[in-house]
Each structure stands twice: as structure tokens, then as C-alpha cells.
Amino acid sequence: MQRDDDTNPVYQQDKVEALILDIVIERRRIGTDALVAEVVIDTGDEREMETARQAISGLREHGLLEPEQEDGTLEPTATAIKAAALKI
To answer: What is the pTM of this model?
Structure first.
């Protein structure tokens, strides 16, 4: 699969959101930079980096991530934790 293919999961915001949410719920608290480093395969790929940033923003807009803390960390909301518990 080519890197610029629109079907590549690294460019699909919904798939990246799901991955990010799983990581944040599992860890309960993670630095934004560490999270992006974990989900982005090629940090030189601006499109992939933007997809990760948009995914974080989307999760916040939907009430699944708390606002970023002053120290740059992210935490899941109680709603996100409850939804994950129901999924199990």
C-alpha cells in the first residue's frame, strides 16, 4: 500500500481517533508529544502528523478527552472511560 493512498489507516481520522482513545484510556494520562510519537509512524509525513492532531482535536470536541493540562498531558473524560468499560 502506498503512503499517499487515502485508504492508508494513518490518514483515516476515525481509525487514528480510536487508537488514540485506546491509548489514553489505558494509560489514563499521557503527554501529547509522547502520544503523537506513539501513533505516528513517520514524523516527517506532515499529512500523518496533521491527522493525529485532528484526531486529538476531534476527541476533545466529542467530549472524550479533557482539555490539555498545563504540563502538556491528556486524560480521558469519565464518559470515555465509561464507554470503554461498556465496550468490554
So the answer is: 0.84
